[in-house]
């Protein structure tokens, strides 16, 4: 852009400490860009919690295909109808996949979760999932998770391995179960007035920037996962990958979450996600057959 567009980065909650505050800052054009998780996004657009339904996305390839497809435009338009100054630019990743991590008991099957105190975020959908598996969901804010694990306030959490190690939770967690029940999507938001103030050429530059950031945020958790798993094991942790049969047990045990979601938010977004993930799965499976 020959210096017309610059980027200033304010990290570590310098401009806002909670997602709602960050979104308000973008809407007011105090700053132009912010990021949210599905949980944060769900605070302003509750139907978006469909993306946190357990096991609704099969793997990285399906998730990336899905978020690069028609769903992104549908979601962008729906949010802009409600919040005209918020523009969804792209969806990356914040930390890989959510897995069950515990301090005392290895989880291999759904029945192993029964009675365990599992840390969740306040979002109802995450609490309901743990309840459905027989656990005791315990909402704990992110800064308090380390102490809660150390003191036994909770006996487990649902996070990606890179976050676990970076926050030193592995000093207390002893078991990781790679069930991959949720893709940790990162939603990037831009002030729409700022977007509309750009020339067409400038929009291309900004859009390219978001595209490259999307690629980087999707690759970073993958690149860091192996080192994080090694660090987890070095600290005395045990990593378990459920068999296909055990994974299906988890899927079957949480199927009731679809009905729960439908009762709360209707079928529209659930049907969209199921239809488009099916298309992505079919495309990827067909490509695999040609190998």
Within CATH, the superfamily carries the name: Bacterial extracellular solute-binding protein, family 7
Radius of gyration: 20 Å
How much helix, percentage-wise, in residues? Answer: 40-55%
Q: Are there runs of 5+ residues with pLDDT below 50, and where?
A: none
List the helices and strands and how they pair.
Elements: H1 19-27, E1 33-36, H2 38-44, H3 60-67, H4 70-82, E2 86-102, E3 117-120, H5 124-132, E4 136-139, H6 145-151, E5 156-159, H7 161-166, E6 175-191, H8 192-197, H9 200-234, E7 238-240, H10 244-253, H11 256-265, H12 268-289
Parallel strand pairs: 3-4, 3-5, 6-7
Antiparallel strand pairs: 1-6, 2-5, 2-6
Helix pairs in contact: 3-12, 5-11
């Amino acid at each position: 852009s020959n210096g017309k567009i610059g980027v200033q980065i304010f990290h570590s909650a310098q401009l806002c400490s909670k997602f709602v505050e960050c979104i308000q800052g973008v809407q007011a054009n105090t700053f132009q860009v912010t990021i949210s998780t599905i949980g944060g996004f769900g605070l302003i657009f509750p139907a978006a919690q469909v993306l946190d339904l357990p096991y609704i996305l099969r793997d990285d390839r399906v998730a990336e295909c899905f978020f690069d497809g028609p769903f992104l435009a549908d979601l962008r338009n729906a949010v802009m109808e409600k919040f005209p100054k918020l523009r969804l630019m792209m969806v990356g990743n914040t930390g890989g996949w959510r897995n069950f991590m515990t301090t005392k008991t290895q989880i291999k099957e759904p029945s192993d979760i029964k009675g365990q105190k599992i840390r969740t975020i306040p979002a109802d959908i995450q609490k309901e999932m743990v309840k459905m598996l027989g656990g005791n969901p315990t909402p704990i804010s992110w800064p308090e998770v380390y102490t809660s694990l150390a003191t036994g306030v909770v006996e487990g959490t649902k996070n990606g391995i890179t976050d676990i190690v970076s926050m030193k939770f592995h000093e207390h967690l002893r078991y990781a179960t790679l069930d991959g029940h949720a893709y940790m999507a990162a939603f990037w938001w831009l002030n729409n007035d700022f977007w509309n103030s750009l020339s067409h050429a400038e929009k291309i530059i900004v859009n390219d920037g978001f595209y490259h950031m999307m690629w980087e945020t999707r690759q970073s958790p993958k690149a860091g996962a192996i080192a994080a798993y090694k660090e987890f094991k070095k600290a005395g942790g045990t990593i378990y990958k459920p068999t296909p049969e055990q994974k299906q047990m988890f899927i079957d045990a949480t199927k009731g979450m679809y009905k729960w979601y439908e009762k709360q938010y209707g079928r529209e977004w659930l049907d969209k996600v199921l239809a488009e993930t099916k298309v992505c799965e079919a495309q990827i499976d067909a490509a695999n057959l040609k190998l």
